[in-house]
Description:
Layout: H1 16-32, E1 52-65, E2 68-83, E3 86-102, E4 109-115, H2 121-128, H3 131-142, H4 144-147, H5 152-158
Antiparallel strand pairs: 1-2, 2-3, 3-4
Helix pairs in contact: 2-3
Amino acid sequence: MLLHQQAAHAAPRVDAALDRTVLPVIDRYVLTDPHGPLGGPQSAGQDRDAPRGFCTERVIEIRPAGTDLRVGLVAWCGHFVRTGATLTELDGGVTAAVLTVSSSAHPARVTGASWEPDDVLSTWAPAHFSAGGTTEVERILGNTAAHLTDPAAKASTAFGLHAPTAE
């Protein structure tokens, strides 16, 4: 009988205060990073119904990196457009990333980013996350809808529509 089997790596505990501090900074950055999931900023046109990008993120772990913070996360992003009273998702995807946030800058800002390349999560995640963080990323990506908020809700609100309901 084995009394001590190797336990699955537990998800890292994220400090709630740090999460509240870094998430707005990360949210702004994810929307504009040219190498990120949305491919960079959209032009701010006069048409309030023009396609726009929206993301929701979940912080997986926050680790010190000198005086900065290394923030591992999963982001669900997409471009949406309003047509009358309907919201249409033009594209979307879910990806993992590790962002370096300078906590010494005022205001705090992202100073570096590493985005998960397509189809290499199994080698990329262990090189960028702790063992527990890697396990958590794989769990979230295995069932995104159960673990992340769909960015369609943010898009609906921004376009002045009712938030979509689960079907």
